[in-house]
Amino acid sequence: MTIPTYHTPALLEPTIDGLNINPSGTYVDVTFGGGGHSREILRRLGSGGRLFGFDQDIDALANVPDDSRFTFIHGNFRHITNFMRFHGVEHVDGILADLGVSFHHFDDPERGFSFRYDSALDMRMNRQARNTAATIVNSASEERLADILYNYGELPASRRLARAIVAARNEAEILTTGQLIDTVSPLINPRQQKKELAQIFQALRIEVNSEMDALRRLLSDSVSLLNNDGRLAIITYHSLEDRLVKNFMRAGNFEGKIEKDFFGRQMSPFKLINSKPIVASDDEVAANPRSRSAKLRIAYRINPLNK
Questions:
Q1: How confident is residue 158, by pLDDT bands cut at 50, 70 and 90?
Q2: At 98, is the secondary structure helix, strand, or coil?
Q3: What angle, 0 to 180 degrees and rounded to 10, lies between the N-to-C axes of helices 211-225 and 193-208?
Q4: Which end of the chain, N or C, is more open, meaning fewer C-beta atoms within 10 Å of its C-beta?
Q5: What is the DSSP letter of 119?
Q6: CATH architecture of 12-103+211-306
Q7: What SS3 class is residue 131?
Q8: pTM of the predicted model, to two decimals?
C-alpha cells in the first residue's frame, strides 16, 4: 500500500538558501507540516544550532524528527513571540513560513478542505477550534458572507453567492461540502467551475482559521524577534497574502506606504533580498503542480544603527 505524502515543500532550495543558515543559529519554521523545510534546515545546522517548528494541527506531530536540536510547538504562529519567550528565546536568526495548505489537508476527505469530496464542512487547521466552515456558512450575516467571499476569494459575484447561501440555509442547514457546492453551482461559470469553487473554499478556509490576521501578527512580531541581519522567508499562494508580505517587507507596514526619516532615509525595518518574488521552475511545477502559484519573498532585518 502506498502511504500518501503529507506534503511536498515548494521552492525548497531557494527558500533554505535564502535563509543563509548560520550553523550555530536559531531558526523558526512556523508552518512545520510534513517537515520538509525543517529537515533541510537541520541538515545545515551544526551541533549548536536550534530549530523550532510550529503547527496548530496535531497531525503534524507524527512528522517530528528525532533530533535534540528540534523543538515542536503545537500552536498557532500568531503567538510566536510568547512561545519563544517560554522557551527562553528572545531573538532568532531566521523565520520561515510556507503558507500553503498541506497535501494532507486537501487529500483527507474528513477535513473538508477540498471540493473533490462530499464531506463535513469543516476546514479547521486546529481541530480543537470552535468554529468550522459550517458555523460560518450557517451563522454569518448575508453582508458578512459577501465580504468574506469578496475579500478572501476575490469573487465578483460575492453578493449573489451570499444571497443564495442564506436562502438555502433558511430551508435547511448547510453542513457538507456537497450541499455548499449544490447551493453555489447555479451561480458559477461552468467553464471556470474548478477555479471559482476553489476561490469559495479558499475564502471560507481563510475566515475559519483567521489566516490573514495571523499573518499580520507574524510579520509585525518578526521585526522585534529577528536579530540584526536575521532573515524572513515567506512563501505565499494567493494575491492577498503576497500583497501583505510585499508591502511589509518593502515599507514596514501593510499598506505599502514608504515613510522616510528626517534625513530622507526609508524607515522600513527590512531590506529585500529579491526585489521580485521567486517562483517555481518548469521542472518543479511538472513534479509538483501545486507549486505553480507559490511565490517566495525574502528580506533581512536592518540594524537600525547602520542604515
A1: very high
A2: strand
A3: 60
A4: N
A5: -
A6: 3-Layer(aba) Sandwich (3.40)
A7: coil
A8: 0.91
User: What's 130's DSSP letter?
Assistant: S
Q: Which residue has the cell 470552535?
A: 130
Specify burial of residue 254 (Cβ count, 10 A radius: 0-12, 13-18, 19+). middle
Closest by CA to 33, choosing from 52, 51, 6, 10, is 6
Query: Of 74, 15, 67, 11, nearest to 43 (Cα)?
Result: 67
CATH number for the region 130-208 comes to 1.10.150.170
Please count the other Cβ atoms lying within 10 Å of the Cβ belonging to residue 275.
Answer: 7
285's CB contacts (< 8 A; 6+ apart) are 291, 292
Q: Where in the chain is the domain with CATH 3.40.50.150?
A: 12-103+211-306
CATH 1.10.150.170 in the chain is located at 130-208
Residue 51 to residue 35: CA distance in whole angstroms: 11
Question: What does the pLDDT look like over 42-87, one tens digit per residue?
Answer: 999 999 999 999 999 998 999 999 999 999 999 999 999 999 999 9
151: how many CB neighbours lie within 10 A of its CB? Answer: 15
